């Protein structure tokens, strides 16, 4: 009663996770099924948002790291003119730039996880990480595809799925524009 299922929606990425329409209209939930105090749902959700965003950051870093690993492996194996393309300075510079971004993101994320476990307030840093690292993983995915050439456009190439999956990261769990608003608000800019 008061609840209807709608269509299953086809998405750009995250194909292993279904997304569907759910319609609630005068839907009544028995008191015994209520989580927490009456009227406290929104603050409860807000409190857990840091953890959700941290989870997105960790996933983004993990994917960026795997993309980097795959890219280095490919560039060391794929040869042009008898030489692996990883011996070209242009490719080396691209990989060094990708590695630097991934390493910086990883170091920041490890510190955030440690602070979260210690129970410290990480609202500002989590918002910074959510915006920067989810954009960084998209940059890394783009550069990887570029280095792979036509192979990077084939459905059986790792980068195609990775590119689809990372595109939503700057959007879900609060868009990156909202992350910047949070940082501006909490740092009193
Ligand atoms: C694959 C996927 C899975 C999801 N899973 C979940 C889930 O499990 N649970 C859940 O609750 N939600 C989920 N979401 C929803 C997600 O959190 C929202 O899509 C996201 O927070 C953005 O909200 P919106 O789509 O309403 O965008 P809108 O708020 O409509 O934003 C549209 C654009 O306007 C900009 N904008 C909006 N307000 C402002 C502002 N004040 N200042 C500046 N710019 C602004 C945004 O940055 C964005 O660019 C999911 C979304 C996707 C795509």
Provide a descriptive summary of the structure in words.
The chain has 189 residues and is mainly α. It folds into two domains: 3-30, no CATH class; 50-186, Butyryl-CoA Dehydrogenase, subunit A, domain 3, CATH 1.20.140.10. The chain is 59% helix and 9% strand. The chain has five helices and four strands, in the order E-E-H-E-E-H-H-H-H. The strands form two sheets. A two-stranded antiparallel sheet has the order 1-2. A two-stranded antiparallel ribbon has the order 3-4. Helix 1 packs antiparallel against helix 4. 21% of the residues are buried. Flavin-adenine dinucleotide binds at residues 11, 14, 19, 168, 171-175, 177, 181.
Question: How is the topology of this model organized?
Answer:
Elements: E1 3-9, E2 19-24, H1 41-77, E3 79-80, E4 83-84, H2 89-117, H3 123-148, H4 158-166, H5 176-186
Antiparallel strand pairs: 1-2, 3-4
Helix pairs in contact: 1-2, 1-3, 1-4, 2-3, 3-4, 3-5
């Amino acid at each position: 009663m008061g609840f209807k299922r709608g269509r299953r929606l086809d998405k750009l990425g995250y194909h292993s996770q279904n997304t569907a329409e759910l319609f609630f209209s005068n839907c009544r939930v028995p008191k015994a099924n209520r989580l927490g105090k009456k009227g406290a749902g929104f603050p409860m959700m807000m409190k857990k948002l840091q953890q959700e965003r941290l989870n997105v950051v960790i996933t983004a870093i993990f994917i960026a790291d795997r993309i980097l690993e795959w890219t280095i492996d490919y560039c060391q194996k794929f040869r042009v003119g008898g030489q692996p393309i990883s011996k070209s300075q242009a490719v080396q510079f691209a990989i060094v730039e990708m590695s630097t971004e991934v390493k910086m993101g990883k170091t920041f994320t490890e510190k955030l996880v440690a602070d979260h476990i210690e129970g410290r307030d990480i609202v500002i840093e989590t918002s910074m990480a959510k915006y920067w690292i989810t954009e960084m993983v998209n940059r890394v995915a783009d550069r990887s595809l570029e280095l792979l050439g036509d192979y990077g456009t084939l459905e059986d190439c790792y980068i195609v799925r990775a590119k689809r999956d990372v595109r939503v990261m700057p959007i879900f769990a609060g868009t990156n524009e909202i992350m910047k608003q949070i940082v501006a608000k909490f740092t009193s800019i």
